[in-house]
Amino acid sequence: MLKQVDHCIWVAEQPLKFLGLEVGTRMTVILQLDSSLLLISPIEINSDLKQTLDNLGTVKYIIAPNLFHHLYLEHSQQLYPQAKIIAPPGIETKQPNLEIALTFDQDLINFNGELEYTPFQGFQGFIPPKIVKVNEIVFFHPNSKTLIITDSAFNFDCNFPFTTQLASRIIGSYQSLKPSWLEKIAIRDKETTRKAINKILAWDFQRVIMAHGNIVEENAKEKLTVGYQWLVS
Q: Which of 47, 167, 176, 199 shows the smallest number of beta carbons within 10 Å?
């Protein structure tokens, strides 16, 4: 089911388990002025969702926002063979058989000036026992003043199963827009990451859409600033 967030931005959600916990996942859909659609972090698209998307516009880009959110790229490409896949560097090790049209490290993509983006340099993830590259790309949609992130912050609350609530309390991502202590452990080059988050926080956003957790509709910039205060201060 597609849910409208603003006049030209929608989200669709589906269940997803990570390390045995239900964390859910979310795709963001952006309609551009030329009636083209951008799918950020695609989920499994069933026939009803496809029909809704087709009624909105023509899918032009399918975007993997980091090296973890690539599971449905092939599925989406089969549904929309005319669309181009855009992904971060390193995606070829995850999806070697896919046709990747553009990568965020090599190509300047202007999205008709309707979507801005920046690599979250220095940001890494910790999946015990290893620190892993994330290569996350963060997006800003000026028209709706929306920041679109993936795994660089979470916002779990009472709408999630008890086990997820308990785990998010333990790792420090319950009812707060911030990364968990797992990400804090993984970030080694703090100066590079500090510069990246400061660049992100310079955008004039009021809402944050993340892949896991509830969307923050109000005072999102202030909440994300607090969430990264340990790094930016």
A: 47
Amino acid, single-letter form, for residue 226: V
Strand, helix or coil at 110? Answer: coil
| CA neighbours closer than 13 Å in the CB half-sphere of residue 75 | 14
* Cβ atoms 206, 221 nearer than 8 A: yes
Alpha helix segments (H runs only) across 103-233: 162-171, 181-186, 190-201, 220-227, 229-232
CB 63 within 8 A of CB 83: no
| Residue-wise pLDDT tens digits, 55-97 | 999 999 999 999 999 999 999 999 999 999 999 999 999 889 8
pTM to 2 decimals? 0.96
